[in-house]
Design brief:
Layout: E1 21-22, E2 25-26, H1 27-38, E3 45-47, E4 59-61, E5 83-85, E6 89-91, H2 93-101, E7 107-111, E8 116-121, H3 124-139, H4 148-156, E9 169-171, E10 176-178, H5 182-193
Parallel strand pairs: 3-4, 7-9
Antiparallel strand pairs: 1-2, 5-8, 6-10, 7-8
Helix pairs in contact: 1-2, 3-4
């Protein structure tokens, strides 16, 4: 998923965060390379309207709808067996291997206590059901956020404003790094040098 607005990043380093380089490789190219390593036959689709997000080994899809943050889970691509990875995240090999090899029957979320970094969909209709539920509540003003956390909480029957982690969540602590803000990237680069 690389179809966010990039407001928090604000084109730091004169490039979108999905195209920042870590160890000489853009985040998107790294994700594609690691997915190919652990699932050589995967169909990899980068969801973005930005033509610069063309990556060898993947195709690019322009989402039909991208108004709300939850729309990053590109509805027209949701089907059984799809996995949504956040394109602004640095994944270790261990993280991608865990995501690729994990199984469930409905939905499976990956991340740490603060952030979801991937959602693996085993039942596409179930994913759509929870997305529509969250969007409806948000558009009616009944909830403040309309993101991946709300999908997770809806799926688990938990309060939609919580970050409670229970079933259907795989903790991959210290195996990913998000770059929401320039400071996230600068700290990461400094730690890599140390």
């Amino acid at each position: 998923m690389a179809n966010g607005k990039g407001i928090r990043w604000d084109n730091f380093t004169d490039r979108p965060k999905h195209l920042i380089k870590v160890e000489g490789e853009t985040l998107l190219a790294r994700i594609v390379r690691l997915l190919r390593k652990f699932d050589p036959v995967a169909q990899i689709i980068i969801t973005s309207t930005d033509e610069r997000y063309e990556v060898k080994g993947a195709s690019r899809h322009e989402p039909l709808n991208n108004k709300l943050e939850i729309d990053r889970f590109t509805e027209e691509l949701i089907e059984d067996g799809v996995c949504f990875l956040y394109g602004d995240t640095y994944y270790t090999e261990a993280a991608i291997k865990t995501i690729v090899q994990s199984t469930d029957t409905g939905l499976l979320f990956f991340g740490n206590a603060k952030r979801i970094v991937a959602v693996k969909v085993f039942d596409g209709e179930l994913m759509k059901k929870h997305i529509h539920h969250i969007k409806t509540l948000f558009l009616e003003g009944k909830i403040a956020d309309c993101k991946g956390w709300q999908i997770y909480q809806s799926y688990n029957g938990a309060p939609l404003d919580s970050r409670e982690i229970s079933a259907h969540y795989v903790m991959i602590n210290d195996q990913t790094q998000d770059f929401n803000y320039p400071d996230d990237y600068l700290r990461f680069v400094e730690n890599k040098r140390a």
